[in-house]
């Protein structure tokens, strides 16, 4: 077996021994170029995993094309009759691809992830108190309006406004990331998160109204 | 008939595994259907009368087990021995079935165990739903083996998309008990889409409306260029045709003013109700006739009255449709087509309601009772013999963890594509706390008691720290079958207490072992044969990989070294030709040791080249002169990534 130092030397030039044929293989490929064995997913970030530059403005069609193409090659269904080791690697690859694509295709998750890559922690999945007093006020007013809305058209009107606001935030986000203005990108991400949540609430209210 | 004589050690029949035959099974609440692709076209396996449906009914008789139509015929005579609709209890706990009390046509065993799976009291025996389902699967396996003339060991089994983790593991356990290796659990609506999609080469978003005997599923799938992507799924795990039968039966009880039905009477009434329901699909009026306690009952009912009775139930399905459309971010007019699945979609009211909701007539060219099994057979073929299509499925219900105050923190949201793994950090809330209870739940609600509990486990050995200092990472991993594994570890101190738990209302490992021991399907030599096959597959892999390596880098070896490796390969091949598993494994181990210097040299050369100032791309290009022997190796846009 190659020693630990060998592994480190190999890793420093982006190589690792293939688990199957033991020869050198790039840590970024799905399959060994020598023996064809599926490789572990490695450490690439979500953008690079789909062959993209880390940027808020991603070509989402291209990301999807790559995602589907790679899934076609590594999905566990392709390895159902293979030995457990290969099945496990296929699953790990497939998990990484799902994670990457799910993160990139959603602008909110993409923004939060990009912030994290750049060293800012904006956890979208957690409910944190909003620190921006202006946003807090806006949120409270919108919730009050939603509580007061008694009819479907009234709720839909609120949803339409929030939807339009969200689209506005997206183009602002794109500008902020392009200018590398991370504090602004961070606060826009928080606002987008709130708008999403609000839209979800309008949906819940609409369903409740229809089933009454 | 002439007897065939074989050489000792030679297998008489080519086993289906080697021929690559795997069957597709739709294990339904009411009926089970099995199909296979044995040439190009999927085919439902039928009985001599041409019937593809095997009633999911099991009779536990004194000396044997009877499944299907014959079991159904015994129901009136032995109501306490005949079990039906068992799917509704798969993975259910005692607590869950309280809601179904009085509805089920069999007795639930009283149990002090509040967490375990529910057991049935049948003919004085206590059995699990898994064992009953295994009997159905054994019958299915036997039918397939008779029809195809080979042993069948592998299957794709379908489950309702809405089945939670407990029900999925229970289904997998049942198959294992029946001697079937489950290649994949596939969601029923996905299977149905596969059956339709391959026929028509359809593109766009399709809704699969699946109303079966006991469950309702609605799924939205996007079909594009051979990829079947599930966008959202929803439904109701306890709503189906059985409920329509019950509605009719209750109506009859009220009409005829009968009370205190014995089990036999209740079973007879339900059977009559089902017949009446089916008759009402084709005519405006129908008779419900049944003899209860010697009293002959004849009740006439109009379709419109029946429809009034069941309309609230069908409205419930429309609410689920609305939810999945919202989840997928689309509207009824964004749907290209609606596929109907399940016998209950034969009801005219269902078709009218679906057509009204989606604004277009549903597709029903494939028999709704058989479409799922056909899809399962296609997937079984894809998994064993390869395919151009790809199924990307999602998890139907959110998975969460209990936090302080009985609040659920979601770890994986519903409709997340699988396989998936997500980790979340938690911390201690008391100074010096050394243990953490992980309670795994599934469902959409905010509080633990409104969700389904899948299991609990404790992470111990956390070093004592002040409250909030520990970082405990809990990882939820869901595989391509939709089955969950949970693990937890403490990160800050390097104490790597890790525990993996498979939450399961299925069988514990020891229970499974006991049951397998009792059953004849997994006889010892069968197990040995499997291990031998596995050893051969692994040896084949090692030899192929080594040959590829020699083709690419053989020049790194001296003539003598090459000869030495060739000799080791020859020894391995010799072992491979025999029947001795240990000899095969030993030869492969030896081969591994003898080729170690060769592997080392290959690595060293690549590293040296890379370090000499060549860019990695050049190193790779120089190494990639030989094409991969058996598979293409798409690169992950690596060039673009490194610019």
What would you say this structure looks like, in words?
The complex is a heterodimer of chains A (212) and B (643). Chain A is mainly α. Chain A has three domains: 39 residues, no CATH class; 65 residues, Orthogonal Bundle (Helix Hairpins); 79 residues, Up-down Bundle (Monooxygenase), CATH 1.20.1280.20. Chain A is built from eight helices and two strands. In chain A, strand 1 and strand 2 form a beta hairpin. Chain A is elongated, with a radius of gyration of 22 Å. In chain A, 41% of the residues are buried. The mean pLDDT of chain A is 86. Chain B folds into three domains: 305 residues, Nucleotidyltransferase, domain 5, CATH 3.30.420.40; 109 residues, Substrate Binding Domain Of DNAk, Chain A, domain 1, CATH 2.60.34.10; 119 residues, Substrate Binding Domain Of Dnak, Chain:A, Domain 2 (Up-down Bundle), CATH 1.20.1270. In chain B, the strands form seven sheets. In chain B, strands 1, 2, 3, 4, 11 and 12 form a six-stranded mixed sheet that branches. In chain B, helix 13 runs parallel beside helix 15. The longest helix of chain B has 30 residues. The chains are: A mainly alpha (212), B alpha+beta (643). The interface between A and B is large, with 58 and 70 residues.
Spatial separation of the terminal alpha carbons of chain B? 73 Å
The fraction of residues assigned to DSSP E strands of chain A is under 5%
Number of strands of chain A: 2
As a whole number of angstroms, the C-alpha radius of gyration of chain A is 22 Å
Mean pLDDT of chain A: 86
The parts of chain B where pLDDT drops under 50 for at least 5 residues are: 1-17, 622-643
Structural class of chain B: alpha+beta
Oligomeric status of the shown chains? heterodimer
How many strands, what sense, and barrel or not for the largest sheet of chain B? Answer: 6 strands, mixed
**Greatest chain-chain contact:** A-B, 58 and 70 residues
Concise summary:
With about 210 residues, chain A is mainly α. Chain A has helices at about 5-10, 45-50, 60-75, 85-105, 105-115, 135-150, 150-180, 180-210, and strands at about 15, 25. Chain B has 3 domains: about 15-240 and about 310-390, ATPase, nucleotide binding domain (Nucleotidyltransferase, domain 5); about 400-505, Substrate Binding Domain Of DNAk, Chain A, domain 1, CATH 2.60.34.10; about 525-640, Substrate Binding Domain Of Dnak, Chain:A, Domain 2 (Up-down Bundle).
